[in-house]
Amino acid sequence: MEGITIRKMSPADLSEVSNIENLCYSTPWSPNSFKYELANKEAILKVAVFNSEIIGYVCIRTILDMTHLLNVAVLPEFRLRGIGSMLLKNAVGELKRLQPNTKLTLEVRQSNIAAIRLYEKFGFKVTGKRTKYYQKPEDDAILMELDVSLFFSD
Length: 154
Known about the structure:
Layout: E1 4-8, H1 14-24, H2 31-39, E2 43-50, E3 53-63, E4 66-74, H3 83-98, E5 103-109, H4 113-121, E6 125-134, E7 139-147
Parallel strand pairs: 4-5
Antiparallel strand pairs: 1-2, 2-3, 3-4, 5-7, 6-7
């Protein structure tokens, strides 16, 4: 999609990011959770901006020897236009520059077929399942992992 930029998330973005979070998730993060991640030097937080409006975001964090895709969301009216791919490509590309030999893990609702397909497109592989991991509504989690050294960001 033309006219979209990806940039680092800032504290000034928290209101818009929290709005997207509340629209996209049944158990949303609080603004304080985002503040915590912004203060974490091991976190990669990016936003997608279109016409000065934040339309999506991604959060990745390394804890000790594990790197995890915490959250990715796009406003419903902007979905299926490649914005999630743009966010992931930018954030995983940065992760590869910083930690080229890490593995990136995630959980995704088993019912979220569009997200699973997006992750598979990026090379994530299914590694397991957690029964009844999600609530509101109850759903299993599919565990996925990406070998970041194999990621091509062109």
